[in-house]
Amino acid sequence: MNKQTHPTPQNMDYGVIGNCRSGALISRIGSIDFCCLPDFDSDAMFAALLDPARGGCFAVEPIGNYSSKQEYLRRTNILVTTFFDGQNVFELIDFMPRYKTEANGYHCPSDIVRYLRVLSGQPSIRIFYDPRPNWAQNPVRSEMGPDFLKRCTTEGKYESVYLYSDLPLDSIDEAQSISLTDEHFLVMSYNQKITAPDIDFIRLEFERTKVYWMGWVTKTSVFSDYQPIVERSALVLKLLAYQKTGAILAAVTTSLPETVGEVRNWDYRYCWLRDSSMTINILTRLGHYNVAKRFLQFLLDIVPFKDDKIQIMYGIRGQRELKERDLDWLSGFEGSKPVRVGNAAYRQKQNDIYGVVMDAIYQSLSLFRQSLDNQEDLWTVVRTLTRHVRNNWKRLDSGIWEFRTERKHFTFSKILCWVAMDRAVKIAQIFGKQVDAVSYAQLRDRIKANIYKYGIHHDLHALTQFYGGNSLDAANLLADHYGFMDPQDPIYVNTVQHTYNRLCVNGLMYRYRDADDFGVPHSAFTVCTFWMIRSLYRIGEKDLARKLFDDLLESGNHLGLFSEDMDFKTRRLLGNFPQGYSHLALIDTAMTLSDQTKWHALAESYRPD
């Protein structure tokens, strides 16, 4: 078995492909360096991103002095890498099949299709096919079948994967030179195929998948001055929506460091409920009510009805236990260890969770009430959440940023408790429960008074990170987003201005600047930069907001994709990738900076009956 010879890209120069079951990262020069099969949260088949020597990759490399360019096929999640040397030109078209079936279901197998098309000349390539199942922990052997090349583990948990191709399988297995003539294909599948694919089948899979993605984007009600980047971000969010349950992942990857060489390396292949209300808000504003409704159903399936503890995050099938462990045999991204799977944050107490879930329920009732047949279940969940708020809002918690050893009275957690009760009042009024509405309003108002008394710095006249402190927190910028403060409220204006002065460096935002469990933060948090831009625009700093937004868009990778973090000096993308929360905030900010009068008028015409 031969190994990849080219270096790992240095600025997250990857495209992502996927089909709402799994996904893969493909480098700018055509190497699959990360992929988990059969599902997003399965063990990795390729993990060169986390260990170039051991992790395994699937690279198609031209023989000779070639240049390359990479782009998405317009309005799809199909990635095209074109190689050219002046005489020979060929395309590598990568996708995971997805389209509707005649039975109104979805065809989304655990397959990766690599479709090669020669455009001129007769190029030659080598294929470095080196899957390493189980996170490359166990030895792997190669077996030649009648029409496939199989790789399987020889120790530990048994795993296997199958490769089909019209190119010589023995030449692929040995990474020998192969001449391309016209059209060729490589299909890697978690499952053995009943019928081996041929080029006609590949063409059909390609066209069906292309039509699916283009049709989905066509339904996107994008009313923005930044339409192409909004469409790309919407496609990322759709790709991250797990087909089987409707859960939406935070990211495709695990353990990409917030800062290279440090230990803030987390597994993001799970569903954070914190993202839920913004996800539903953005998807419905884009016209994708079905995706939002499926996500709401996932939410209702996992949120406990009465006394069970609500978690901040769940597995994409609703798993409650996400035990964290280190893969100590992997060297980590550029040596950044540990490599983690699972996420111990699922055990944390974060009081903001009540607000985001209640906000998601309120939005869904506002949009889908006439088609919801589980309204009594919803009302039970609402009453349960309000009881949790009543019992917990005065208590310490770990906060939105998931501090692992420190609990405080975080101001943002209190604001989200206010959100929970504010939405509970509105929901009670929808259901005609006036007595409950009055009771909920009284608690809502007490929480707000408490925040104004203890969560505002008296000299700065701005919201602080925690009660009694003088630290600032970018999360408080969302006070306007959730309706806790009007954007012209002097306290909110001061919060935005002081947060900008203290936490913004070179146009990028810290979450906070004080030391935490792992020391002083060194990287910018992408979603916070989008929040700041939106907040500046809302308080009237429109020129500055547009400039920061345009600069930030230039900092995405070559395909317009964003990760969780950035380096303040170089703007190198860091952290897990692509990050759903970053792309959600990008869409929200783009819509805020666009012509809102035009947007609202058009959006109303797209609301469901």
- How would you describe the shape? globular
Mean pLDDT score? 91
Structural class: alpha+beta
In total, the number of strands is 28
Total individual domains: 2
Q: Which CATH top level class of the largest domain fits?
A: Mainly Alpha
Rg, nearest Å? 25 Å
N→C terminal distance: 58 Å
Strand order of the largest sheet: 6-7-8-11-17-15-14-13
Low-confidence stretches: 597-609
CATH architecture of the largest domain: Alpha/alpha barrel
Largest pleated sheet: 8 strands, antiparallel
Instruction: Find the CATH topology of the largest domain.
Output: Glycosyltransferase
Total count of helical runs of at least 4 residues: 15
Strand fraction equals 15-25%
Helix content: 25-40%
